[in-house]
Write a structure and sequence with these properties.
It is a single chain. It contains 15 helices and 11 strands. It has 405 residues and is of the alpha+beta class. 45% of the residues lie in helices and 16% in strands.
């Protein structure tokens, strides 16, 4: 068996193999055949409408970059004998098309995963061949501008068509260029009545202030977002104050991931592993009473030597245990803001690669693209069929319906 590997020692990084060349030849033939079908259909339609038209050769040959490399195409022309001009615009190969849409998707994915604008052509040349040279930094720049336009349109989407049971909220701090060292992006993800997660908004905030969160929630409400049953977030006081004003009946659930990190800040590293286990025993308790008993045990163990750590945990007891008022099937989804944390960690990796070369606008546009990509893989809430009960206001005690407990 012959293994084909790219040779990076020369000027070209293109990999040549018989299979790829065969695919390019067949792609050329298929495109030509499809164009002939298109132009024949249009000629017949025009003749049926009484026009005197004939085939008139081809437009100048041009190269279109596809996932199998550059394909040379010739688009047919039509001439009208009655003197009135005819413009045949192929749907397959529109005017000025230089690359397939899948190539734009490749470029976007590579850029979001850490390939810089300058390195894009060199990296993709391995699979695209000479056509990759068309992927100049200007191509990536135009994509970023397109992302920003799409982001602005997305922020206006109507939310009335959804009914949300839960929302996840967090502030993502991102390094950018310019005078401000970090951008604070306020993120909200909603769970609809089918258990599916949706990215609802991304907003440039000011250190997660009450005013910033207030504006975010007012905007969501104006776009039609209903009052969710539960909000999951960290201890940023700005959000909770704003939530109580805009959605006063929504219950508060503090994120156990954030809370664990905050508690560990007050403890020596030698105790971190042991303390994590103690905290896990709390939120894994089968009932609220068991969880409170585990908290008292935690106080007994660490209260004398580390009162700040204990106070950090106990001051939010009610909000930390709010998930017990919801179906037990949902608990694994309600204890943390993991959908936000895991999704936007990718952007932090991306900016390390380019040394923080982002403006506020481009960072928000990229976050939006990452969010859309992440939505495809977000887990549906376990026991989603019980969300209807949550939305209708059914009471739960320790994860079980109150009327059956």
């Amino acid at each position: 068996m012959t293994m084909i590997t790219p040779d990076f020692s020369g000027q070209s990084h293109e990999v040549h193999d018989a299979i790829t060349e065969l695919l390019r030849v067949h792609a050329r033939h298929l495109i030509a055949t499809a164009l002939e079908v298109e132009v024949t259909e249009m000629v017949n339609e025009l003749k049926s409408a009484g026009r005197d038209v004939v085939r008139n050769g081809y437009l100048p040959e041009r190269s279109v970059t596809t996932v199998v490399g550059d394909i040379e195409v010739e688009v047919p022309r039509i001439r009208a004998r009655d003197g009135e001009p005819i413009n045949f615009a192929s749907k397959l190969i529109p005017p000025y098309l230089r690359r397939s849409k899948s190539i734009d998707a490749w470029v976007a994915y590579a850029y979001l995963k850490g390939i810089s604008e300058g390195d894009m052509a060199r990296v993709l040349e391995v699979v695209l061949g000479e056509g990759a040279k068309k992927l100049t930094p200007n191509v990536v720049s135009s994509l970023k501008a397109k992302w920003r336009t799409e982001f602005d349109e997305w922020k206006k989407q109507d939310l009335n068509k959804f009914t949300f049971s839960y929302i996840y909220v967090d502030g993502i701090y991102q390094k950018i260029r310019g005078d401000n060292p970090k951008l604070c992006v306020l993120v909200v993800i909603g769970v609809d009545d089918q258990g599916k997660k949706h990215l609802l908004t991304l907003e440039d905030g000011t250190r997660e202030s009450t005013q910033s969160w207030h504006e975010v929630l007012v905007d969501l409400k104006s776009r039609g977002m209903n009052e969710p049953a539960l909000a999951i977030g960290d201890g940023a006081l700005g959000f909770w104050s704003a939530l109580s004003e805009i959605y006063p009946t929504t219950k508060h659930q503090r994120c156990w991931l954030h809370k664990t990190g905050n508690v560990l800040n007050y403890l020596p590293k030698s105790l971190h592993s042991k303390v994590k286990g103690s905290i896990r025993e709390i939120w894994m308790s089968p009932t609220r009473d068991d969880a409170k008993a585990a908290i008292r045990t935690f106080e007994t163990k660490y209260g004398a030597k580390y009162p700040k750590a204990v106070n950090c945990l106990t001051k939010d007891t009610d909000a930390l245990l709010a998930f017990y008022d919801f179906p037990a099937e949902h608990w694994v989804h309600l204890r943390t803001t993991n959908p936000i944390e895991s999704t936007f960690a990718t952007l932090r990796h991306r900016t390390v690669k380019v040394k923080g070369a982002f403006s506020n606008e481009s960072a928000l546009g990229m976050l939006y693209q990452l969010g859309l990509e992440a939505e495809k893989s977000w887990r549906r809430v376990t026991g989603h069929e019980r969300i209807a009960e949550v939305i209708s206001g059914v009471a739960f005690v320790n994860g079980v319906r109150a009327d059956t407990a």
